[in-house]
Design goal:
The chain is mainly alpha-helical. 63% of the residues lie in helices and 4% in strands.
Length: 233
Amino acid sequence: MKAEHPERGCHQLEIEKQNVSLKDQVYHQIVEMICSGQLTPDTLFTERQVIEWCGVSKSPVRESLVQLCAEGALRSIPRCGYQVVQISAKNIRDLTEMRLFLELDSLPNVLKNLDEEKIRELRLVSEKRYAPDKDVWRAWDNNIRFHLTLNRYSGNVQIYKVLEQAYATCARAYAQLYTVQKAVIAPGREARETGHDLIVKALERHELYTAHEQLKKDILFMEEQLLITRIAR
């Protein structure tokens, strides 16, 4: 299936953002199109189409496409264009295993560095998960913001960077879930306490074991939901 010009797709890139390279802006725009469901695994699109969508020159578009292919988000099909790679069950399990190592092992340092200000920040981030419009991209952003904020408190910059990159390169896996089951990650206000709320409460009480188990449960729940949807093949 050939990609049409997206109705809600790439806005003209904000060139004035000097702190972000043009290539990175194009990269994030393509990822956003994948996460919003505008570019699906059955859609073929070309470099020229991306240039038109994003309103930029060939060089940053090509660099972004090469990076996304290297990360496994896209595949290049000679003489046809590019296609979004369908997430496999193994991809999901590998990502979950990595998250368990990085996030759970960081918890003792998180707890050691916690103070009232950090607890308040974490609680506010958790509350943002109640997205009234259940927008896919906002839901994804709110979810990773919680986990990255939590991990940042550990004080290990290298682990944070690895986790941040893992979320960035695997965003499309979660987006495929959110498109089908947005309520899983963007619950309405009527929902009872989420796993994030329980993690915050346990940390506030300095209950490391409970926080560890709730975080583990939250990570495994996401894996379970991804596999149950049978989106991954």
